[in-house]
Amino acid sequence: MNSPAHAIYSSTLSLSLPGHEFQPQYGVQLIFNETAENVLSCAAICTQNPSCRIFDYDSSSYRCRLFEADLTNGAIIAVASRTSIVGSVILSASIYTSMYNQSCSACQGNRYQTCSSTTNKCQCSGNSYWNGSMCPLLLFQNATCGQIDACRSDLNLSCIINSYGEFTQCSI
Predict the structure, then answer these.
(1) 11: which residues sit within 8 A by CB, 6+ positions away?
(2) What is the C-alpha to C-alpha distance for residues 9 and 7, in angstroms, rounded to an integer?
């Protein structure tokens, strides 16, 4: 099925073994904490939210948590409960390179890129940035950055340039 509506929800996910949950590095990374009927419902909620990169689900409490995070700014941890599982959205450059900076028709209905109203071109969505091959999440404080737009400006962070003119780390 290749309809635009299908593309919005199309994602490849990886699931952890039972007995794990996601621990974000920062509280702001939690974007949803509700109930879901089962792990597939929780996964569907994640794929419908362009900001979601990781989710965890507990089948005993029906808790579904979505995170704007990945394993560079959080961790999958073992927990005592065997009813909790983590799902990660698998990203690859091929998702991005074929449409980045193309006309908006190329990314219509796509969860990974959005149409920029200023350029009328496909751009990284939400809290992500173009690194030349894909749209990783913007970085948090003290993270090593390699370009000016890699840090979370909504948290007043910018990529600091050292005395040699090299980008170093995200800082206020």
Answers:
(1) 46, 47, 89, 90, 111
(2) 5
**Residues in CB range of 15: below 8 A, 6 or more apart:** 39, 85, 86, 87, 88
- With b meaning 16 or more CB within 10 Å and e meaning fewer, what string describes 58-76? bbeebbbbbbbbbeebbeb
Q: Provide the whole-model pTM.
A: 0.83
> Using one digit for the tens of pLDDT, what is the confidence trace for 31-68?
999 999 999 999 999 988 889 999 999 999 999 999 99
Does 7 have pLDDT greater than 50?
no
All structural domains of the chain, each given as residue ranges with its CATH number in brackets, are: 12-90 (3.50.4.10), 92-126 (no CATH), 138-171 (no CATH)
Residue 94: is it exposed, middle or buried by C-beta count within 10 angstroms (0-12/13-18/19+)?
exposed
